[in-house]
Amino acid sequence: MFIQVLPHPSVWPWVPSLFLVHDRKRNAANQAQPTEPDLFFKPGLYRYTLPHVSGMALRELEPLMDQKSGRIDELESHRHEARERNSERWRSSIVLALLCASALYGAYTFCTRPNRHNSTPEDSSPSQMPFSPTYTCLPGQSCWPTTNQWIAFNQSINGHLQATIPWAAPCYTASPNETCQKIAKQYSNGVSRTAQYGSMEFLDWETCGMSQCALDSFNPTAPVTGTCTLGRLSTYHVDVRRPEDISRTLQLARHHGIRISIKNTGHDYFGRSSVANSLAIWTHNLKELKYHKTFRPKGCSARYENVGQIGAGIQAQEAWQYFEPLGMLVTVGAVGSVGLAGGFGQGGGHGPLGPAYGLMVDQALEFDVVTADGQQRTINECTDPDLFWAMRGGGGGNYAVLTSYKFQLHPAVPLNVYSFQAHWPKPTDITESKVHSDVIRALALNQTLFANHGVAGYNFIHPDHIVSLQIMPSSDTEAIKSVTSQWHDFLTNHPDLNITENSYYSFKTLSRWHQFTERPEIARNGPVGLGIIEAGRFIPRDLFASSNNIERLVDAVVTAMQFSFTNKGGGSAQLYATGPANQRDNSKTSVNPAWRDALWEVIMGAAWTTKDSIHARTQIQNTISASIQPFKALTPGGGCYMNEGDWTEENWQQTFFGTNYDRLLAVKRIYDPTSLFNCWKCVGWSGYDE
Ligand SMILES: Cc1cc2nc3c(=O)[nH]c(=O)nc-3n(C[C@H](O)[C@H](O)[C@H](O)COP(=O)(O)OP(=O)(O)OC[C@H]3O[C@@H](n4cnc5c(N)ncnc54)[C@H](O)[C@@H]3O)c2cc1C
After folding, report:
1. 370 touches ligand 1 (CB under 6 Å)
2. Is 350 touching ligand 1 by the criterion CB < 6 Å?
3. Which of 282, 309, 330 is the last residue of a domain?
4. Which residues contact 310 (CB under 8 A, 6 or more apart)?
5. Ligand 1 centroid vs 274 CA: distance in angstroms?
6. Which atom of ligand 1 is nearest to the CA of 286?
7. Is 253 found in the same domain as 141?
8. Which of 210, 438, 561, 659 has the fewest CB atoms within 10 Å of its CB?
9. In this structure, are 152 and 196 located in the same domain?
10. In this model, does residue 41 exceed pLDDT 60?
11. 265 and 217 in one domain?
12. Measured between alpha carbons, how far is 80 from 40 in angstroms, rounded to an integer?
């Protein structure tokens, strides 16, 4: 199969040099100045200059909104001056085009996604009632709250309003400093990146084109040059501690027409948790953890045993560390840093326990949420069946802000694993490579058997090696051997495989299993701190049901790999068998129905770093988008996991939500009629500002 990559014109924003407000020279000049921390927004771009007091920790500068410091006045008065300057500019007719751009940048961060021309927002469909773009107020405009209004708001939420500071800001200074060194050390650590608001897991959604505050991904201690800018990060964020903080934030946003964004860990592959010029709700510090021996959802008669309750900020590893000593398993994903209750727990949530127990949304029993009207509600299938259904699969960031997630736990059993790794010489053409076809065919032939026994699989097929893990949660620790015997014998006896691992393990706990996956050759916890581009597709079970279909599937995998390989995409395919293979009934959840019928989720992906030019990044994006085409051709009308797809996907309603889209949209209109929650290719997406 031949795939052509159409070059998309790059539309990364142009940042006028006029507003590049911080550089090393200037910083050096500042060093002679007195001790007042010089931390404020210049019109449009985030400006960070390290204070002239050596050793002052960045954290000490952060409570910008503390009225006693007076810095909010400074911050907002700079904004006011910018507003004045801008209106003068608009009156002038000199070099109109330049001034238009300057004024735009002068008031807010202009951040548009590349390639967005191929996306169709909800309101452009004539058959759909458009959501009004009500939440368009930008910093510097008259609708933006005044200094006093910000101060009053900050007081109402106990001082938890923060001006956003990019994580790597301390590295954009003239001289090396300890804070920067610490950040550089942790730059590729997925957990560290979630510990503050000012970083996302991937640079795609921290940066905005060349507007960024990033370090060199593979050499983060290397000195950086240029300006530290906010990129796609929000202007301000609320470090939420109580549901009331959320109600008040939503009230302010509604009143002033400000765009809201919601961030938990910042893992989202579509950048739905960071929106430039927004007021962000950061849920990271909602860290409640509870175990209920029995639990009855409010208003329901049914009682459940072994129920977990977590705050919205709990991450997978915090959950298993808490529930493991209680003898309970949680349906986490592959990586400890992902949040359980945000995008994962509202969009799907697959993992090593998926085929045995289902998705995270399958475990959900009750949520505490704050809806767009500011109301705090406890929702479940008895009290609010429509909203609860929509939030069990319809995706995070779109229906309400979730504060607490109550869900089914499972009595612990060992995780029994068959782990295999082998190398071979890199072929010139993967479509002609016998070893690739043999391995993929053998895996596909065994997949139905694996699924029927609740075996989950992570299979990484690279141009020159394979990493394959089959995981069977069971108290019968030997059962995995008989279920995988055919696959094991095939691999063991294949003459072209240079085997480096061919072993069975039994892990008593999830944390032991997780530790095992952190071995460098598996490295399920990384890489982060760079750019990642993904595209995915569900592969339905009928493609595993006949040898003819399996050949078509093998052909699609090698074609996609070869295309990716020759077009700077790396050439790897990830074949995940971690979905709800034995939970076919989708009546209680709103995940894409295609998932209930799938045995594989195929993911094609590639990385970029700050060393790659915008052109190179666009090329990688185009390669990955195109490399999923063979799977689309194989699965007409099919779909993809909304959390692991291609953010440039054109047919996004069908691809991410399938036949559930219309019902999801109807629920959205009831609970969020003005589209206060609005995220990229989420249900009812308005397309505004991205
Ligand atoms: C390294 C890595 C590994 C991954 N592994 C898996 C895996 O094994 N299985 C799997 O299913 N997925 C996996 N994912 C995908 C993951 O599920 C999504 O990225 C998911 O969106 C992460 O949710 P989050 O809340 O942690 O992230 P965030 O980026 O903070 O949020 C994601 C979305 O949820 C919204 N949101 C967050 N918190 C709330 C809240 N309290 N209320 C309402 N909306 C909220 C945000 O606005 C955003 O739209 C992985 C992602 C990465 C980067």
Report:
1. no
2. yes
3. 282
4. 288, 289, 290, 319, 340, 341, 404, 405, 407
5. 12
6. 41
7. yes
8. 659
9. yes
10. no
11. yes
12. 12
Classify strands 400-408 and 304-311 as parallel, antiparallel or unpaired.
antiparallel
Q: Which of 264, 282, 300 is the last residue of a domain?
A: 282
Q: Across all residues in the chain, what is the average pLDDT? A: 84
Ligand 1, atom 19, lies closest to the CA of 268
What is the Cα–Cα distance from 595 to 536, expressed in whole angstroms?
Answer: 12
Residues 540-596 pLDDT 10s? 999 999 999 999 999 999 999 999 999 999 999 999 999 999 999 999 999 999 999
CA angle (388 as vertex; 386, 392 as ends), nearest 5: 115
Q: List the structure tokens of 429.
A: 């053409």
11 C-beta neighbours (distance < 10 Å), count: 15
Q: Which two tokens stand for residue 505?
A: 């393990």
Q: Is the separation of the CB atoms in 415 and 510 below 8 Å? A: yes
Distance 688 CA to ligand 1 centre (A): 22
What token pair was written down for 24? 């090393």
Q: Is 338 in the pocket of ligand 1 (CB under 6 A)?
A: yes
585 and 613, same domain (yes or no): yes
Task: Kindly state whether residue 10 falls inside one of the protein's structural domains.
Answer: no
With respect to residue 8, please indicate whether it lies within any of the assigned structural domains. Answer: no
363-386 confidence digits (pLDDT tens): 999 999 999 999 999 999 999 999
Number of domains in the chain: 3
CATH of the domain at 566: 3.40.462.20
Query: Which residue type is seen at 18?
Result: L
Domain that holds residue 499: 415-508+527-649
Which residue owns the Cα nearest ligand 1 atom 26? Answer: 339
Residues 178 and 44 in one domain: yes
């129905």: which residue's tokens?
593
682 in a structural domain: no
**One domain, residues 495 and 572:** yes
Q: Please enumerate in sequence order all residues whose Cβ is within 8 A of that of 603, keeping only pairs 6 or more positions apart, or say none.
A: 534, 535, 536, 573, 574, 576, 644
Strands (E), 424-572: 456-461, 465-473, 498-507, 531-540
- Judge if 482 and 383 occupy the same domain: no
Pocket-testing residue among 262, 406, 471, 514, ligand 1, by greatest number of atoms within 8 A of Cβ: 262
For residue 684, is it within any domain?
no
On whether both 370 and 384 belong to a single domain, the answer is: yes
CATH code: domain of residue 399:
3.30.465.10
Phi, psi of 349 (to 5 degrees): 90, 80
402 lines ligand 1 (CB under 6 A): yes
Structure tokens at 2: 């031949």
- 268 in ligand 1 pocket by Cβ < 6 Å? yes
